[in-house]
């Protein structure tokens, strides 16, 4: 839309000292003549556009001019920009970059001193492509189809009404209504195969945040408590990954911790195995044997 392009041009000129008609035409994918007409429209709207000729010429906006907003303070803008930039490291898009440009212009200059890097959340290219397709389907309210391999390796075909994307437990998940199960379910994006968008529309007026909260509560109810012994030199590692759990001093300065863990999540098991002889499960016996079995299978690969 023209109004979006005009606002985008103003934002670009506020963030850059000078831009040529060619640079603006390439950025907004229009002709140079269209940019020239846009500049006339912007000037007529009261924005002080300056046109300079020569090798260093181009369009600019008077330095004394800035967009103002009476309702948001400068510190508020800093927090918003920090959040948007952080989001862009893990879920980047051209639209998000344009939004960041707008807030930078509204802030009138921004020196960032807090950096949050979520690039690990991008996962691989396949997950990123699936995320984009799912996001479009969520916005269009159209069903999607895919083959899904669960944690046990069982493959099934799913028809889902997509409602939300979320990053959780170091991975991207789709939350939606599973038509075959007639229930709300979460699906890990990395386990999807043959993802397809359809033209089939759906209507769902449910409170998504409330559904996610209920889904999380149900999931947490499946978590189990395990008691572990931890060497005094490694207790800080467990405290880093389980900050809410309390430790109890044990013999010779070592510790006992009760961990609340999801049964089907492998990350905590991998963590305990990575700590070697610095940690061991005391109870329940089922988890002791499960970890011993996993360690034995690992060692068998090396003929040990």
TrEMBL record:
<dbReference type="InterPro" id="IPR013196">
    <property type="entry name" value="HTH_11"/>
</dbReference>
<feature type="domain" description="WCX">
    <location>
        <begin position="225"/>
        <end position="297"/>
    </location>
</feature>
<feature type="domain" description="Helix-turn-helix type 11">
    <location>
        <begin position="7"/>
        <end position="59"/>
    </location>
</feature>
<dbReference type="InterPro" id="IPR026881">
    <property type="entry name" value="WYL_dom"/>
</dbReference>
<dbReference type="InterPro" id="IPR036388">
    <property type="entry name" value="WH-like_DNA-bd_sf"/>
</dbReference>
<dbReference type="Pfam" id="PF08279">
    <property type="entry name" value="HTH_11"/>
</dbReference>
<protein>
    <submittedName>
        <fullName>WYL domain-containing protein</fullName>
    </submittedName>
</protein>
<dbReference type="InterPro" id="IPR028349">
    <property type="entry name" value="PafC-like"/>
</dbReference>
<dbReference type="InterPro" id="IPR036390">
    <property type="entry name" value="WH_DNA-bd_sf"/>
</dbReference>
<dbReference type="Pfam" id="PF25583">
    <property type="entry name" value="WCX"/>
</dbReference>
<dbReference type="InterPro" id="IPR051534">
    <property type="entry name" value="CBASS_pafABC_assoc_protein"/>
</dbReference>
<dbReference type="Pfam" id="PF13280">
    <property type="entry name" value="WYL"/>
</dbReference>
<feature type="domain" description="WYL">
    <location>
        <begin position="133"/>
        <end position="196"/>
    </location>
</feature>
<dbReference type="InterPro" id="IPR057727">
    <property type="entry name" value="WCX_dom"/>
</dbReference>
């Amino acid at each position: 839309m023209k109004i979006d392009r005009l606002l985008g041009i103003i934002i670009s000129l506020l963030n850059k000292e000078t831009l040529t008609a060619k640079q603006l035409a390439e950025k907004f994918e229009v002709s140079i003549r269209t940019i020239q007409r846009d500049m006339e429209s912007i000037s007529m709207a009261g924005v002080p556009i300056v046109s300079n000729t020569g090798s260093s010429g181009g369009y600019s906006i008077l330095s004394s001019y800035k967009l103002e907003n009476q309702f948001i303070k400068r510190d508020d803008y800093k927090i918003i920009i920090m959040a948007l930039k952080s989001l862009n490291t893990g879920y980047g898009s051209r639209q998000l970059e344009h939004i960041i440009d707008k807030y930078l212009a509204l802030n009138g200059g921004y020196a960032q001193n807090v950096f949050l890097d979520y690039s690990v959340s991008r996962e691989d290219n396949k997950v990123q492509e699936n995320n984009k397709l799912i996001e479009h389907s969520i916005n269009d309210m159209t069903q999607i189809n895919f083959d899904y391999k669960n944690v046990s390796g069982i493959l099934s075909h799913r028809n889902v009404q997509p409602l939300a994307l979320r990053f959780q437990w170091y991975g991207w998940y789709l939350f939606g209504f599973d038509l075959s199960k007639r229930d709300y379910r979460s699906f890990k994006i990395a386990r999807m195969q043959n993802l397809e968008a359809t033209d089939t529309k759906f209507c769902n007026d449910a409170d998504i945040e409330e559904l996610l909260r209920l889904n999380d509560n149900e999931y947490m109810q499946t978590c189990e408590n395990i008691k572990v012994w931890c060497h005094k030199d490694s207790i800080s590692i467990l405290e880093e990954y389980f900050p809410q759990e309390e430790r109890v001093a044990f013999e010779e300065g070592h510790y006992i911790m009760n961990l609340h863990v999801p049964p089907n999540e492998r990350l905590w098991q991998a963590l305990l195995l990575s700590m070697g002889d610095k940690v061991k499960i005391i109870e329940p016996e089922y988890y002791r044997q499960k970890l011993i079995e996993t360690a034995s299978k690992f060692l068998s690969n090396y003929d040990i």
